[in-house]
Amino acid sequence: HPGGATLSLVPTSGSYNIGDTFNVEIRLNTEDHTVIGTKVYINFGELVSVPSGKADVSDSAFGWILKNEVVDNQLRIEVGNLDGVSGSNLLVGVITFQANSSGTANVSFDPSSKVTNDIGNDILESTSSGTYTIGIPGKATLALSPASGSYEIGQIFTVDIVLDTGGQPTDGTDVQYLRYNPDLLEVQNVSPGDLYPITSVNTFGDGKI
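User: That's the sequence. What structure does it adopt?
Assistant: Structure tokens below.
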């Protein structure tokens, strides 16, 4: 259909970690046609899932919901509007995916998808797929900064404990223990950084903090 409607996913790409959830919008460009119905079947494979078992169509341009379900790694939406809708960026629905396995998750419109105009013809001309990279979450690491230095006897110097969360949310860190040579060093003070408040600090005489 020259000048036919298009269906697209927004965003078309992204990078996520296993366990993450992310939203993908289904958008319709009617190309100045008046549309009374849209059948959107989306294949998403094994790497991601739709935990809710359906799309969020609460803000859809189509108020008439005929079907909204997930069957065998396929989201099936059928919506309508008897008055007809027209626009270049209409929202059909929002999919919340959960990333389950590492790899490249290809999300595409099934060939059975349709866009029906006000005289009953399918005017869907093209679709755009989505490609989402699913990675394995990194592990958190602790380091001292600076890692080395030269100082004179009696000189006071500061060493930071630096946390790299590996991209993971954290709510605390338990450092057990920092070891040092008490014959060479004396700990003057342990102060909190700007990440977490220190809930307990114990200094031992055998070279442990």
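The chain has a mean pLDDT of 88.
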